[in-house]
Design brief:
Mean pLDDT: 96
Helix content: 25-40%
Number of helices: 15
Structural class: alpha/beta
CATH topology of the largest domain: Aspartate Aminotransferase, domain 2
CATH superfamily of the largest domain: Type I PLP-dependent aspartate aminotransferase-like (Major domain)
Low-confidence stretches: none
Number of domains: 2
């Protein structure tokens, strides 16, 4: 028998490790781009679980896939393969540059696998000296010790003792800085084809093409972290398609499962062979339940209607944000790509992104931040236009209060 007791925000402080500071709002159900909390207050979801809920909440295709697979088989182990994993892998391979797929449970794990593969490839093919990994300041690649060290934000990686070595950082969009530290000792360059946590920064075409060229020149691997940009978020199935630069390894998670935890590292046959039997693994990676849901999400997003819809909805968002700004003058720039949008606060409102998030929540709209100066939006890729308009109307009320 289940014992029922009050489940409220106070309970969080009693029973949870204090590494998060969640809001007092506890959502209990969602449908499409709206969620309701314990008091049955309605919110429009412009956060998307941080770019995860690519089809909103309780999308029939995902619910159907989950229920269907729940009655079949949930977990095996990698001693055996399973049908949903093979079907999903085949679809990913058919629609990307990649030939081979490795499944994990999260973006960090997919990135961990990518970095381990790069180091193993370098050792196998080039010998012991080729170990340098280069990434970018303000980049974010996950929270495992290897990925958080490769991520370019010291606040996340400091304070845990000695870090994994031979990892260097340069500024995003600074090709000369990259050129200056690359050599034949460079094993890999890891980059987001649009920086997410770092502030919704798009690469210049010259920069992203230059990164590819430098990798080719120094025989280094190019790893695209598409954990946040992948599966339709930018209006292309993967962002590399939009910048027209093909990586050697790509990581995908977040939207891949539409809310179910799953990640994947994808690459070529030539590189994949270096992760031979026993070199890497994951107990839950590729479990049938996760793969069944991810297959439904992938199929639903990977259509011209949804992908073109993302581009159209992005225009509507940006126009709406610009209209709000014309009245209140709180943003100095609206940036990003597709439905990964950042509203950068003016000097007057520096450091106040969280205030905007809290004010928006009070008006019934969920948003995100990217650092202290940027409000981030990552809604469902199929959010109805009426919800965009209503959410922006609520957001405008929040802006109006703060701009007084």
């Amino acid at each position: 028998m289940t014992n029922h007791f009050p489940v409220d925000r106070k309970l969080f402080d009693d029973v949870m490790v204090p590494n998060y500071a969640p809001s007092a709002v506890i959502p209990v159900r969602g449908k499409g781009s709206r969620v309701w909390d314990q008091q049955d207050r309605e919110f429009i979801d412009f956060a998307g679980g941080i770019a995860v809920n690519c089809l909103g909440h309780c999308h029939p295709a995902l619910v159907g896939a989950l229920k269907d697979q729940a009655d079949k088989i949930w977990h095996l182990s990698n001693v055996m393969t399973n049908e949903p994993a093979l079907r999903l892998a085949k679809k990913i391979v058919d629609h990307t540059f990649a030939d081979k797929v490795y499944f994990a449970n999260s973006g960090a794990e997919a990135n961990e696998a990518a970095l381990k593969l790069a180091r193993r490839w370098a050792l196998d093919v080039h010998g012991a000296g080729k170990t340098q990994i280069i990434a970018f300041n303000q980049g974010f690649h996950g929270r495992t010790f290897f990925t958080v060290t490769v991520g370019g934000q010291k606040a996340y990686s400091d304070g845990f003792g000695p870090k994994p070595g031979d990892i260097d950082h340069v500024d995003y969009n600074d090709l000369e800085a990259l050129k200056a530290i690359m050599s034949d000792k460079t094993c890999a360059v890891m980059i987001e084809p649009l920086q997410g946590e770092g502030g919704l920064v798009s690469p210049t075409q010259e920069f992203i093409e230059g990164v590819r060229e430098l990798c080719d020149q120094h025989n280094a691997l190019l790893i695209f972290d598409e954990v946040q940009t992948g599966v339709g978020r930018t209006g292309d199935l993967y962002a590399y398609m939009g910048v027209n630069v093909v990586p050697d390894i790509l990581t995908t998670a977040k939207a891949l499962g539409g809310g179910f935890p799953i990640g994947a590292m994808i690459t070529t046959t030539e590189l994949a062979k270096h992760l031979k039997i026993g070199t890497h693994g994951s107990t839950y990676g590729g479990n049938p339940l996760g793969c069944a849901v991810a297959e439904a999400a992938f199929d639903t997003v990977n259509t011209p209607e949804v992908l073109n819809g993302v581009k159209e909805k992005a225009k509507r968002y940006v126009a709406g944000l610009n209209a709000i700004n014309a009245k209140y003058n709180v943003f100095k720039e609206i940036r990003g790509k597709g439905l990964l949008i950042g509203a950068v606060l003016t000097e007057q409102y520096q450091g106040k992104a969280k205030d905007f998030l809290n004010a928006a929540l009070e008006e019934g709209v969920m948003t995100l931040v990217a650092g202290a100066n940027i409000i981030r939006f990552a809604p469902s890729l199929v959010i109805p236009d009426t919800d965009i308009d209503e959410g922006l109307a609520r957001f405008e009320k929040a802006v109006a209060k703060l701009a007084k």
